[in-house]
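Exercise 7.
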Amino acid sequence: MDLDLKNLKALLNQFGKTVVAEAKTNASKNSNRGKLSNSIKHKVDTSKSKNSLTLIFKMEEYGLYQDKGVKGAINPYTGTDSAKPYEKGKKYKFGTGTGKKGGLRKSILKWVEGKRFQFREKKKNGQLGRFMSYESTAFMISRSIWSKGIKPTLFFTKPFKKHYKNLPKNIGNNFKKDLAQMLKSNKK
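Solution. The predicted structure, written as tokens, is:
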């Protein structure tokens, strides 16, 4: 006797759609993160068995760092601006030696060149001088990120928590509907 979980699946799918839509809006508000915003997706997986459902959220890996923040190696953000753990006791942080050497700087250089973004030097009299090279600009940005870290944006966490509040009650109601439909069809 298989239980058709179509009501429960529809509920999880709607929950996923709502969270993804708000997360995409939040990600694009925080800055021009088109690639990140476009990568946020959800899926209700039934592949394990017909009587089980799994809700999966996917996004670019750096979305995790943007959402929860990254603790700096030297002078980290503190208080409400500090990195938040995804797992109990685990925070993302720079300076652990586990990341790819030069990976941050290469990514920043690619971004700086793509946006055609350059800092300007300051002269002694306070006037702005010539533009710095892309390499120098990327070095300064990556050094700042590495030492201070990244402030958490919670672009995904906030909508997830907001909509999760009603999910347990709704899961119970939709499961009852699925069960009642199964019992009704078995009587026939």
